[in-house]
Amino acid sequence: MWETYGSEGLMVLAIGAGENEATAATWRATYGLTHPVLADPTGAIYNLFGAGLVPHNSIIDGNVILQYTEIGYDEPGVIATIEHLLLNIDHAPVLDSEDDLNPYPVDCSINSATDVIENDLHWNLDGGATFTEVVLTPVMADAYSTDYTAEIPAQPYGTTVYYYLSAANTGGRAVTDPANAPTGLHSFYVGVDSTPPVIDHQPMDDQVLVTWPATVSATVTDNQGVDTVILEFMINGGLVETVPMTLERNGVYSADLYGSVLLGDMIEYRITAVDVAATPNSSVDPGSGYHIFFMVEPIPVFIFEPDGTPLSGAAIAQELDTLGIDYDMGTTLSDNPSRYSSIFACLGVYNSNHTLTSAEGQELASFLDYGGRLYMEGGDTWAYDSETAVHPYFNIDGLSDGSSDAGPISGAVGTFTEGMLFQYSGNNSYIDRIAPIGGAEAVFLNVTPAYINGVAYDGGTYRTVGASFEFGGLVDATVPSTKGHLLMKILEFFDMDHLVILFEDDFESGDLSGWSTSTP
Fold first, then answer.
1. What Rg value do the Cα atoms of the chain yield, rounded?
2. What is the layout of strands, in order, in the sheet containing 65-68?
3. pLDDT by residue (tens digit) across 484-506?
4. Which of 10, 22, 223, 248 is most buried as measured by Cβ atoms within 10 A of its Cβ?
5. CA distance 481 to 417
6. How far apart are CA 333 and CA 336, in angstroms?
7. Per the structure, how many domains does the chain have?
């Protein structure tokens, strides 16, 4: 954190990552933020809480106000502003220039809760230890920060200008930008620009019809600045279409493809970027030809198993292998969930279960918004863990945290589980007790004691099945009380009958000799 705030002694609270480096690394990987809480040497955070512990779900927002909520990251409330310590310079470095006639503005924003008593620009032409100092002039202020500007005089072609910014406040804090100045310095070059833009783009995977039109994104940067970014594409080698790409954030440009597509269609595309130089420079990605992807059928199943003691993933995979149904599996969600018709999320049971993160919940909710099918099991996810964006899609009411009493488990009359009865040998601690609401239906019932532990819901455009026990803990008996038969019935409920209808009669009779299949 001191890279931002300019002091190794100021390890202030940036994200609620817990109290050790491993926990912080996990949080950082999940949420994409880069400043975990590892220490609080001045006690600025400690003194806010009676127990002296940094809360796990606390953050400091962009205005350096400590935010806190007891139930998660979605409903923050302001509990304190750490005014006496924080000082920050926000500055976008000056780009190279072909202008040798006009001065070069250096703009920044200084964030300080106490009065700023020093705000200077330091520059030279050799990168050495002697600098010309210019006082920054305030131009605009709000409740949290003040915008400043200063100018470096025009320089002849062939000149490299070096500079840094400094600030200090009445709270005794002092910072520089870059943070390690004057050892490290910003610099820009005055002269003819012959450097083309840099395009950073991850080629598109094959796409499915449900998510068309696909969005193409790329990060484009340039030493002087980007003028235009253009997307060119063809469908099945037809006419070349041209679309301007729009700057979204931090150098990321994007544009949507368009046109009618069918399964098997081939889309070719490339990205062209032009800079603002007097004689413009351009780049193309790829360097020759086009990137290519195809419109394909979705893969039937993705097994998402972040459970610390995995049990169900392998059992589901084994039954899919028997059925000849294609699938992928992993401990993290796919980068492109829409590539799959269904997701089976196996979160586990206490004390090695995975708590669904808000980012994962949002990704699964988006998957359902595109018409996906989702099976999710977890002993704590329905009543004990915090709700995420995906939980309301199940229409499940988490009644209580439950006990260690799962099994035997029976199907429900009038549903796709009718006639099933399983002994249960899976993990069996704090099995959530649940109930269907809003048109959902109970599909699994614990026998003794009696409670609901499985619910299905047909949402019209999407379908879900939620359970508080582990699929892998179900003990096979005779059909229909087998995991293979249950998986077939779940897939049928997911409206994926075309994958299993050829096998159902033989499966129920026990004759597997004639089975063969091909998957999309």
1. 29
2. 58-60, 65-68, 77-81
3. 999 999 999 999 977 665 445 44
4. 10
5. 9
6. 8
7. 4
Cα(23)–Cα(77) distance, integer angstroms? 23
Mean pLDDT confidence for 224-235: 98
- ∠ Cα 288 291 293 (to 5°): 155
| Confidence class for position 141, pLDDT limits 50, 70, 90 | confident
Round the average pLDDT of the chain to a whole number and report it: 84
- Shared-domain flag, residues 290 and 384: no
Give Cα separations from 496 to 284, 446, 480, 492 (angstroms).
42, 27, 19, 5
User: Residues in the chain, how many?
Assistant: 520
- Beta strand 299-304 with 252-256 is unpaired
The answer to whether residues 167 and 117 belong to one domain is yes
Cβ atoms within 10 Å, residue 117: 12
If DSSP codes are grouped into helix, strand and coil, which group holds residue 132? Answer: strand
Collapsed DSSP state (helix, strand, coil) of residue 265 = coil
312 lies in which domain range?
299-509
Is residue 520 in a domain?
no
Question: 183 pLDDT exceeds 70?
Answer: yes
Give CA–CA dist 326/408, Å, rounded: 31
Cβ neighbours of residue 201 under 8 Å, at least 6 residues apart?
216, 217, 218, 219, 271, 285
- Residue 396 contacts residue 366 (beta carbons within 8 Å): no
Q: What pairs with residue 475 in β-bridges?
A: 423
Q: What is the CATH number of the domain that holds 234?
A: 2.60.40.10
